[in-house]
Write a structure and sequence with these properties.
Length: 299
């Protein structure tokens, strides 16, 4: 089913397809819709593929499949007892197949109290239970929830200009000037080149191309967002799609794509995302960066 979205949603399609094919589905995901008009249909197709029941697309869409539950915060006016009832319901085993799935639309409207209840739910996941939180932008959720979820970004149907400045704005990344943005991106592109070329030995370049510009947790978070952007663009190129933001670096993107399979690109994106999420655990920043270089060097 999901193949119908492959052309327009190459990155999201590749991420979820790899996890289904390798039987490595996470227990919690964020669908970052970016106001994409096809978000709902993408979700229905994705769930049909996860459950390996494409013939039940309409049943899933109409919220009539017993092992899938759709909840909309605005319509249901979520209350604490409804979340607790959801948790109780999902402690039981699925009626069919391996998975029970719940999808919370407009999850940004849960509020802090209910978000904290949901946080405990995903911190102690039941086997075979998968959660999907649907939001326009991942930054609308608590950082503690984001850190425990795999983000699946959808391409927007909007026609806003794909500039680095807009990338920073859309992802709520602070900056002082346009010059600062371009300096950071240019430096991190060179850092990615070093990792691709020198593998583990790229650690000797981390001061020149990383720690000289990024020194605290917030700045590391920003750097990992930019590195994710680099590899998203590589994945677009690998799938014969036009680059969105990094046309200036097309030759670099092309070279990285040539020496990586689509699966390796996705693995590296996962590693960067894991490193970004680990910042919430107050780990030593130097160790987080060294670990990322080492693991990316193994891919």
């Amino acid at each position: 089913m999901l193949e119908k979205h492959e052309k327009k949603q190459k990155v999201a399609y590749q991420i979820i397809k790899n996890e289904i094919d390798n039987n490595k589905l996470s227990h919690a995901y964020i669908i970052e819709s970016n106001r994409c008009a096809d978000t709902n249909d993408f979700i229905y197709c994705m769930l049909a593929d996860i459950l390996d029941k494409p013939e039940l697309y309409e049943v899933i869409k109409n919220n009539n499949y017993p092992d899938v539950k759709f909840m909309q915060t605005l319509d249901l006016q979520f209350k604490k007892n409804e979340i607790l009832e959801l948790q109780k319901e999902f402690k039981t085993k699925p009626l069919y197949g391996k998975y029970k799935i719940y999808v919370i639309k407009e999850a940004n409207k849960l509020g802090e109290n209910l978000s904290n209840i949901m946080l405990k739910f995903i911190e102690e996941p039941e086997e075979g239970v998968i959660a999907f939180f649907v939001v326009d932008n991942e930054h609308q959720l608590l950082d503690t929830i984001v850190s425990r979820c795999q983000v699946i970004p959808l391409n927007s149907n909007n026609t806003y200009e794909k500039t680095f400045e807009n990338f920073y704005i859309l992802n709520c990344i602070p900056y002082n000037s346009i010059e600062e943005i371009y300096t950071q991106i240019d430096t991190l592109v060179k850092f990615c080149i070093c990792i691709e070329k020198y593998k583990h030995e790229a650690i000797i370049y981390e001061n020149k191309y990383f720690t000289s510009l990024f020194t605290n947790k917030g700045e590391y978070y920003r750097a990992f967002e930019i590195m994710l952007l680099v590899y998203r663009e590589v994945l677009l190129y690998k799938n014969n799609m036009e680059l969105e933001y990094m046309t200036k670096y097309q030759d670099v993107i092309k070279n990285i794509a040539k020496i990586n399979t689509a699966e390796n690109i996705c693995k590296k994106m996962h590693l960067i995302l894991d490193s970004k999420n680990s910042l919430n655990a107050n780990l030593n920043l130097g160790l987080v960066l060294d670990n990322l270089i080492f693991k990316m060097g193994e891919c």
